[in-house]
Specification:
mainly alpha; Rna Polymerase Sigma Factor, Chain: A; 9 helices; 0% strand
Length: 193
């Protein structure tokens, strides 16, 4: 017998969990854990913080999945839960300036080739310097490859706002990469009266 039953869809696993089968949640978690961790790592910049946010996201998911109505895809809803866990982690931690050197060193040591490590650390540092609302959209679109409509649903924003934040986030990231500490700051020349 070489035919294997197809893996159940997320929707089916949610239905099973809501019917009392907790093993369905384990399958959902295994299926989505890597994406949630990658999102958290890009939002937070540290492996330890990303692990904690991932754990918080799945714990929140477990607690609230019984009330999930299915108005959006499970993955969209989970992305929202994960982004909220990242926002909570950001609010709980000390200011970024106190942690920046530690993050860059940790990120650089995680890669073998020196040039790749330096580039990755620069991008991660630049991501951490841009406003979190831009960072969330950038990470979801550029690194998680989510379509704009799914990001809008996950963040409970209009698609136009997602497009605007994506554009502004790209500009801020570019400015951060060339050394401007805040890619969203006003021009240095004051406006004419």
């Amino acid at each position: 017998m070489s035919s294997r039953a197809e893996d159940p869809s997320d929707q089916e696993l949610v239905r099973r969990f809501q019917a009392g089968r907790e093993d369905a949640f384990v399958t959902l978690m295994q299926r989505h854990e890597r994406k949630v961790f990658n999102l958290a790592f890009r939002m937070l910049g540290r492996t330890e913080d990303a692990r904690e946010a991932t754990q918080d996201a799945f714990l929140s998911c477990f607690r609230h999945l019984s009330t999930f109505r299915g108005d959006s895809a499970f993955s969209t809803w989970l992305h929202r839960v994960a982004v909220n866990a990242c926002y909570d982690a950001i609010r709980r931690r000390p200011p970024l300036a106190a942690q920046l050197d530690e993050r860059v060193e940790a990120n650089a040591s995680a890669h073998d080739p020196a040039d790749q490590a330096a580039a990755a650390a620069d991008v991660q540092r630049a991501l951490l310097l841009i406003p979190v609302e831009f960072r969330a959209v950038l990470v979801l679109h550029e690194l998680q490859d989510l379509p704009l409509e799914e990001i809008a649903a996950a963040l409970d924003l209009p698609v136009g706002t997602v497009k605007s934040r994506l554009h502004r986030g790209r500009v801020a990231l570019g400015r951060s990469l060339i050394g401007e500490p805040d890619g969203t700051r006003a021009p240095s020349k004051p406006p004419s009266p």
